[in-house]
Amino acid sequence: MTQTQEHNVPALRFPEFSGEWESNTIADVAEVKGGKRLPLGNSLSDIDTGFPYITVSDFENGSVSLEKIKFVPKSVQPSIARYTISSDDIYISVAGTLGLVGIIPQKLGGANLTENADKLTKITLNRDFLLQFLKSERLKKLIKSVQTNNAQPKLSIAAIKKMKVGFPDAPEQQKIADFLSSVDSKIEQLSKKKALLEQYKKGVMQKLFSRELRFKDANGNDFPEWVEKRLCKMAIIVMGTSPKSESYNNHSEGLPLIQGNADIRDRKSAPRVFTSVVTKECLPADILLSVRAPVGEVSISTRHACIGRGISAVRATQSNVQEFLYQFLLWYEPRWRRISQGSTFESVNSDDIKQLKCPNPSQLEQQKIADFLSSIDDKIDLITTELTQAQVFKKGLLQQMFV
Questions:
Q1: C-alpha separations of 249 from 79, 185, 355 in Å
Q2: pTM of the entire structure?
Q3: Which domains occur in the chain, in start order?
């Protein structure tokens, strides 16, 4: 590809193409039509009537998820029969979540389309070229500039029709569409690989912590049977206490402050402010456990810090393995909902945490379990990095390959 400086041409272009692109409105290259809601008093059915109804919540990764599709009752279908979408069209969500774009699977061709989405139909450009264009920042900028300021933001058909789109001749459209589609395929493959690994780890954790799956020692013999202990017998637990807000600062005075889940990113501590008054502290590599909504979320401290009342720190004693406790608490994470208190502001207290029943294998088996699960985490992290890089690469291409 080559970088260009010409007028009305993209910054990044395949070298075999030259000349300026044409420019038109969406209305000049496609028809824009809306979807339709069910008549008042009617509702969708879980029973397959032969008339699927696609909602915005079904839009997923540039396509449509088939898992939760509902259906229009046969008696209602005639009244909305004109508001359908084909697999040759492009959908755009125009209410609630704005700007989701994609195409529907062929098996849903002719499905009814929600009133919260429009379709581009009778497209005269390369359909996939136009789809990639709509994934770029151009549509986001349009949404930001013209969305209505109602309680529920909405993108009007008129605004979509007036949107400008630059395009080259058909062969270059095809080349761009094919290239960007190949990047999408790579992203999709990485996403699926990550999801499969996460699912595999979840299943293995269930088998390990339910003792269905056990490791052997170096001689191939069974490890001793597990006993069960309270978390406070396996680790030092520090409940956070928030310092007064007057002590907060942004000039590195005192220690970083971890108040709660807002100071966690990708299961690592990411403090936003410092505090000159230090109450309770955590150390690097401590397990951080959220004690307020969302209760039980687990992360790792990357630094010596002050912890506020939304966080507790867990530090394994010498006879236990820190990574084993971390993996166990990850597995236990969704189970905190059973003991969290309050309907509007969930929380757990010091006793809930200290009295938590934990498996207590021998230290050697703890280490084997920790090493095995950590190795899966390393693979997930590697794929996550590759996925992020691919997504950033795609975003850069979308910025530079269109006008």
A1: 61, 45, 36
A2: 0.85
A3: 22-166 (3.90.220.20), 168-218+362-403 (1.10.287.1120), 227-360 (3.90.220.20)
